[in-house]
Amino acid sequence: MTLSVSVKTAAFDGYGQYNKVVGDPIYFWNLLPENNAKPQPAYIPEPIVEDYVEACRIRNLSPKASATLSRRCLQGMIRDFCGISKARLIDEINELKRRVDEGKAAPGVNFEAVEAIDQVRGIGNIGAHMEKDINLIIPVDADEAQLLIQLIEMLFEEWYVARHSRQQRLARIASVSDEKKAAIANARAGQNALAPPTVNPSENAPE
Questions:
Q1: What residues pair up with 133 in beta bridges, in sequence order?
Q2: Which of 2, 123, 36 shows the shortest CA–CA distance to 72?
């Protein structure tokens, strides 16, 4: 059983039991749980998970900051999982695209995911870099920030979880193979121990 506590403010019309909400909620607080971040396995690097959790925590409070953290989280995933580290995120994405085109990308990395990361870079840049015209305000709402969070969760599954599952399956296959080889070797050793000694005919020939 999960306890959930939230507070919502809104405009009301009327009094007592006859009142009703007018328009959309003015503000919403999710008190428990503090955020909707999903638990992640320990084999995903801790700094990446921390950025993801923080992006979830401030999604409603500051969607623009949440998008910026999502951008940084994805950059960390490119550097850790894909082994690409350059001065700018755009350069890392272009290198990742090149590797995908040449079939040299890490298992699980496909063109659609890289294109989605590139879109996140554009949205995350809104919070990461000031516009030349400081009077130009480009908003990011909570729903848009949530889309970026969902992309991170998808890549956690398709990259880290899938790789870990693949490694476990391959390790199990190798373990079973070693067990069978050992069983065959033991069986052969047992047969050799039970076999009668070999007699050289020349030893029994009359002199």
A1: none
A2: 123
pTM, to two decimals:
0.69
Indicate the residue type of 4: S
DSSP character for 193? H
Question: Cα–Cα distance between 162 and 176 in angstroms, integer?
Answer: 21
Yes or no: say if 10 and 23 are a contact pair by the CB < 8 Å rule: yes
Tens digit of pLDDT per residue, the chain (207 long)?
Answer: 444 455 666 665 655 555 566 556 665 655 544 668 999 999 999 999 999 999 999 998 888 889 889 989 999 999 999 999 998 888 999 999 999 999 999 999 999 999 988 887 777 555 444 445 445 556 788 888 898 999 999 999 999 999 999 999 998 888 888 888 888 878 777 777 666 666 666 655 555
